[in-house]
Each structure stands twice: as structure tokens, then as C-alpha cells.
Amino acid sequence: MPHPSLTRPALLGVLITSLFAPAALAAEAFGAPGGAPVRGPAAKSFVGTAVGSPSRVYFTGYRGIVSEVYYPALDTPESVDLQFLVGDAGKTFVDEEKRQAYSASQSDKRTMSWIASTGNDGHNWRISKRIFADPNRDALVQRVTFTALNGHTVGDFNLYVLFKPYLDNVGSGNSAQTVAAAGGYALAASRNSRASALMASLPWKTVNGQAMLSNGFVGQSDGWTDLIGSGDSKMDWTFSSATNGNVAQTGWLDLGNPAAASVSFDMVLGFGKSQGDAVNAAAASLGSDLSTAQQQYDNAWHAYAAGLATQGGLADDRYYLAAMTLKTMQDKSNGAMIAGIGTPWGETQSDANQGGYHLVWPRDLFKFANALYTAGDASTATTVVNYLFNTLQQNSDCGVAEYNAPGCAAGYSRVGRFPQNAWVSGWPYWQGTQMDEQAMPILLAWRLGPSVSNPLWPKIKQTADYIVATGPWSYQERWEENAGYSPSTLAAEIAGLAAAADIARANGDDASAGRYLSAADYWQQNVAAWTYTTSGGFGNGSYYIRINPANRAGSGTDRASFNPAAGPDTPQTLTVKNGGGSRDARRVVDGGFLELVRMGVKRADDPTIVNTMAVFDSVLGQYLALPGAPKLPANAWFRYNFDGYGEHNDGSDFDGAGVGRLWPIFTAERGMYEIARQGAGSAGQPYFATLKLLATPEGMLPEQVWSNSATLPDGWAVTTPAGYQPGSATKSMGPLNWAMGEYISLLASINAGRIVDVPQVACARYNNCRAAPKAGEVAVGINAAASTQWGQQVYVTGNARALGNWNTDLGIPLDAAAYPSWRNGVNLPASQQIAYKYYRKNADGSVSWENLSGNRSLQTPASGSLSLNDQVSW
Q1: Is 109 exposed, middle or buried, given 0-12, 13-18 or 19+ CB atoms closer than 10 A?
Q2: Cα dist. 83→50, 344, 423, 519, 620 in Å?
Q3: By 3-state DSSP, what share of the chain in percent is helix, strand and coil, each rounded to 5?
């Protein structure tokens, strides 16, 4: 928006170098320590940071106002909200800005500066703000225009600012103070080694010689209570300080010429390790050329967006917003990326919930770092991989088990293990072990290629060794709630071990590679036997369950130890968390089985996948009749039946129990599955169109959206209460970075005509895709007719590296989908005579060779391809 030149008070002519005495206002506020602090709303209107700059400020917005601001790291919120209160000169009303009609949009579609507009036409005012972080300082800038409407002038209004510090991720124990400096005032706050300072380019109002600023305790002596809670719409309190409590700060701005129709000014929120540092940052920013700073901020984002892949011209504005949102979520200190910049249902969450979603989850991080790589940002993905292995990965053994680690400062740890989640520094938060989170860092390193993965090989080996020693059973699956054998977890483990084996061979460690592939193959051959019921109550009775809650049969790394103590047809009780109740495990389904396709472990047309898809759609799918939504049998899905992670049916916030709603990530996952099933990018288009409709007006994809009211199997009622629309965001989390990443992945898959991020090292090994031959190679199709007994697997090996060089753990497994024909493919050196032979692995891992006195031989052509059609006898 155009912004006129501003007259700055004398305060801004001098860079403040120290903290001055408190202003001569009234004394300490009453009512300490104030009400119990709560966090900011999780539904964000906007997010941003100064990309590629030293500024360590990350900001969010809610309903058109600045909400939580994070500094100096993405896991540390320093505020709850920063808004205006608007009253009339006659003091008959005061409007709270965030409760008014609003809009928020990017200032242009390739930057993360935002234009927020709020107003009340009935009360004849409007506020427009351009919001960005100062790229040169730890400060947040708002360039504000207040406009009087319908013939009114600014003299008809009183304008106040209300700021709620939440310093160092804690709402209690904050201290607030009015600080005088160089002829002006700042509202400063501090807690331990965190401080903030709020300044404006307009002077503060003076009444009877008193500057109208105040610091108070929330619910007792704060500005909102003074102006609105009291009912008199007057600012009566000017407390100079509020010490050690839940504080809020208020200032009454002098709007200048009362006859003007509008007034423009700047407001800056600075941060530092002390009040002096914060005041210095705010003053320096406010005294600088903010138009130039704004342009610098935008130019950096323009350059970032220009470097992204266009996906064959399909990249739309939401694609760029998704990528820039994800880039915003990367901490500048070490490359970590958080799952979401907020706390679900924050308005009813206290200091006790320190982590929220502003933590690092290796699984979420894999999903959206992978998406950024797909979008062409290899640099961020590389930084993430190095963060994962050099900062987050554990390097010691401590503790007996998860949540049983006395004497362990950082909690439970194992060499090579990734914690369930952690602070940006790498310090663990929760203590659980999720085996998909062990495999996914390996997969990301593999996808980035040898230049990234080879230097990390010693650490990758530690994690792969940990997977073989601990899996396939997982302490928690991807929903972080239950232990056992999970299809989604198994998919990641299998693909991760296949990737680790490839990296091992590139680093000359065939012994480790063989060990990883031996485990991965066995798990891949048994994923259905462990997690696919044939006695279920849905569909035709055969489908993947969410999780088989059985324990491992043993603790070793022999094949018998990998097996579950009970199969998926055994009646077992699954205790569904968040109030979901105790259920027969066969009655609980989710979309985790789709990871078997996404990870290359199963084909999209595998009968077990097809059967489960019918159950997934019928039990968990809904059709949301959104404007312009393509016609599909279902276009949105619940996480699983009996899910209690969501608002209660009356709309009240989740409080440890509730009712889960629909997750947009499943619309994306379902679309990518259809692309794989039909072999065409166009198959994903209806799901992509629906995904766009599940975003907020600003373009943010939330964790959950409201569903149609319905009763799921076994009487599980899901209600959308009055005032909420199906398909609109719930209050859980928005944006969810995982969901933003899936937008990128689905669009790229539509362009590619295939799922773009399937690990080829896994899907080629298990005959679910073909790797293109490299220079000097030819494709060889393998078709061997062989009879086997249940539990036996046919392999081929030979004197070529791709065939394992006669190592029976490195040989190629053949696929029995067309039994008795066993099939796969391999790329071999061109123009070479190659010896090979078939063998079978028994259920216990022992090997028996085909009944030939010598070896088979093949001559590869100089170019093109070759097909083998062999008859095998034992």
C-alpha cells in the first residue's frame, strides 16, 4: 500500500544504547500475578520471516492481527497477540480489532509480507497494515494506516495498541515496564534472557501531562480490562510497571491532525537478550528507511520463489505459498524445521504445553523437506539432512526404555536413534520411539544423492543398525499413540533399509548392505501376514488394520524374533487414545496402508491394497459438497475411526479427549494413490482441486477441517456444531507443514504422471517400478517359472554388481504376483557375458540353489533391452 513520509519523534533520532529509567507514570500495577496465561490461537492468517537474512524473527497472524512472534528460534514464542483497540472520542465504545471483519493476503504472490485489513463499518473505521520482518534487525514491522469512514475524521476516534508478551515460551513470570529514552517512550518487557520493546512513529497521547501508556496484569489491571472490561471505554490506568506475572501492555496513540481522514504510521516490535537490546533493535528499525527494508525483504522472497521448479508450468500461487511457508519454518540457527508454528487449540492451552507443534518431528520434517526438494529447493533439504544426522541423531545409550530413563539428562537414548520430537537445538521433548522416524532421515539422504549421503554414511549406518535391531515393531506408529506392527511404519522401515543398503554398497560395506536387505526383504514379504486381517468386519473382511498391537516374538535379529507374537486375525484389544475406548484391533482402520504404495513396497493394484481401499473409503471417507468440488465418492477422510483428537461435538476445544475430524493430507495421499493406480497424472486432478478448497482464504492448509455430521461404525458420533461449516478449518493447527508439503507433492505428481517421491531403490527391488538404465547399461527383464512352498522366496544372483556378486543377501528378489511366474527387472552392463543363478530363501532365511550343475549365462546387448524366460527346478 502507498505509505506517506512519516514524521518521527525525537526518540528515533538517537540509537539507544542502554535502558533508561522508567517513565514518571503511576506505580506498579495491581493484581499480580494476573490470570492464568494461555497461548495464541493455532489458526494462523499469515506467517513470515526475512528469508536469507540475519533477522531471527518469525511472525504469525490471527484474524488480521499479529499473533505469536518467535525469537530467536522457531521453537520459542515471545508473544500472544499485538492488536489495536479502537474507540470513539466520546468514549461510548471500544472495538477489539481481532473480533472485527478482516482480510489478509500477501502483498504480492511471491513474498511473505502481508497486507492485513480489519474494520467495523458500523463504527466507521478501518485499519490496513503491511507486515514484515526487518531483514537487518530482530524486529517486526507494521506499516499502518488508520482510516475514518463515512465522513468521519481521525479526531472522532481514539486508537490504542494492546500487546501481550509471552517471553521465552512462558506467559507467567514476565515483567513489563514503560521506558523513557531520548524524549520518547517504549513499552518494554523481559523474562530471563528474553526481552521485547514496542515503539511507534507516532507520539503517545498525553493527558494532563501524563503519557498514556500502561503495564498491567492480565484480567486485573491490563489495558483490555481498563478499556473494555470496565465498561466505561476510558483509559484510566497508567501503570509504569507490572512485575513477575502474566502481563499486557497498552499505549494510546496520538493521531495528530483531528481533521484528517486518515493517518499512517509505523509500529515496530523489537527483541533482544535484554530490555536495552530490545529497545535498541526497535529504535534502530523505526529510525531506518523502512521502505528500503520492505523492498529488501520482498526481493529476497522473490529470488527464492524464482529458484523453484515450475512443475511444467502447473505451479500455481498456492504452490509458491506452500513452498515459502515451509521455508519460513526453517530455523536460521541450524536448519531445523518445525511441524507447525503454534500450539493446537492454543487459546485453552497453558504454560504447561511448552512444545505444541513448534518442535521438530523427524517424520513431518521428512515429509515437507522432501516436498521442498521436489519443488527444486535442494539447499534446504540438504541442510535438513545434515541437521538430522549431525544434531538430532542420538549418539549414546541411556535409560532402560522409553519414559524409563533415570539419570539420563536428555531422557531415553540409543546410538543412532532419532527422538520422537525435539527442540530446535536437538534436545528431546517426548521420549517415544517411532520407527518410521528412524527410516525417513535415511530416505531423504538417499534421495539427495551420494554427495550428501556418502559423507554421512557412518551415522546412517548407526541408524540402519538400530532399525534392524529394534524393528519392525514400533513403540509408536505415525499417530504417536500405539505400539505394535503398523503398515505405515513397516513401509518406511523397509524402504529405509533398502536405501541404507544402497548407501552401504556405495561406501564399500556389502556386509551391512546384505544385513539390511535380508531384514527388509523378510519384512516386505510378511507385511500382509503381520497387519492384514482376513477376519475383519468391514468390506469383504480382508484389509490392513491400523495396527497389530502384538509384541515382537523375540528380542534378537533372527527372523523368528521379527515376527509378532499374534497375527492380525487374533482377537486383540487396542486401546485407542484420546478417549477412543478399547476396541478389537480389527475394527480400527486408517490410511497408513497407503504408505506401502508411497514407499514402493507394494503396487497400487496389489489385491491387499485394493481391498483395503474399499474399506478406507467406506468407513473413513466423506464427500464434502464444497462449491465447485469435483464429484468423487469421497474427497476427505478421517484419520481413523474412534479418533478422539479433535474438538468435542459441542465445539469446545480438545482437552485430552474429543472427536477427530477430516485431515486434508489424506485428500493429497488419496490423489497420489490414484495417480499410481491409473498411471496418469490427470487421475490426481480431482483430489488436487478438492485440496485447494480445504485451504483457508489465505491459502493455508490446516491439520483438520470440519466434517459432515455422521455416525461412524460402532456408534462413534461426529458432529459439526452450529456456526462451523464442513470443510472449514478447525482450531487444531493451521498451517500444518505436512499438509503444505503434500500440496507440492501432489501437484508435482500430477505433472510427472507418477508419485514423484517414491524411493526408487525400494520400488525397483520389489518389482513395483523400473529404474531407467544409466549410460552403459541395458534393462533386463526377468521371468522365471518356479514352484515353491508357502514362505519361500525366489531370488537371482550372479557375477554382476547389480545381481549381488553371488552374495545371497544382495541378490534380486522376484515377485510372485503372477505365480508360478516370478518376475522382476534389473539394469546390467551392456555388451557383457554374465553368469547368474536362481535360489530360494526359506522362511528361516536358509538358502537352496536351483538344480543346475553350473551357472546360467546371458549376453547383454550393446543397447536396448533383454528379457529372460527361464524354467527353474529345485
Answers
A1: middle
A2: 21, 21, 29, 57, 40
A3: 30, 25, 45
What size, in residues, is the chain? 874
Instruction: Please tell me whether residue 767 adopts helix, strand or coil conformation.
Output: coil
Q: Using CA atoms in the order 186, 189, 195, 199, what is the torsion angle rounded to 10 degrees?
A: -20
DSSP class of 712: E
Cα–Cα distance, 177 to 243 (Å, whole number):
8
| Amino acid (one-letter) located at 538 | F
Check if the beta carbon of residue 56 is closer than 8 Å to that of residue 71. yes
Q: How many CB atoms within 10 Å of residue 96?
A: 15
Residues in the chain with pLDDT < 50? 1-25
Q: Residue 102 contacts by C-beta under 8 Å, 6 or more apart in sequence?
A: 45, 63, 64, 65, 116, 117, 118, 119
For position 20, what pLDDT does the model report? Answer: 36
3-state DSSP of 180-198: EECCEEEEEEEECCEEEEE
Q: Are 153 and 261 in contact (CB under 8 A)?
A: yes
Catalytic residues: 477, 480
Q: What are the b/e assignments for 192-210, b being 16+ CB within 10 Å?
A: eebbbbbbbbbbbbeeeee
Cα separation, 129 vs 97, whole angstroms: 12
Give the C-alpha separation, 256 to 262, whole Å. 10
Beta bridge partners of 469: none
Q: Which of 337, 305, 326, 319 is nearest to 111 (CA)?
A: 305
| DSSP code for 22 | B
d(CA 175, CA 814): 68
Give the residue from 515, 555, 600 showing the smallest Cα distance to 771. 600
Tracing cell 554427495 back to the chain, one arrives at 451
Report DSSP letters for 837-856, one per residue.
Answer: EEEEE-TTS-EEE-S-SS-E
Angle at 860 between CA 858 and CA 863, to 5 degrees: 165
Question: What is the β-pairing status of strands 239-245 and 26-28?
Answer: parallel
Is the separation of the CB atoms in 819 and 789 below 8 Å?
Answer: no
pTM of the model: 0.96
CA distance 237 to 224: 11
* Residue with grid cell 511457508, as numbered in its chain: 325
Per-residue CA distances from 44 to 105, 145, 322 (Å):
12, 22, 14
Q: Are strands 833-841 and 856-859 parallel, antiparallel or unpaired?
A: antiparallel
Taking the C-alpha atoms of residue 446 and residue 434, their distance in angstroms, rounded to an integer, is 20
Residue 17 φ/ψ, nearest 5 degrees: -115, -5
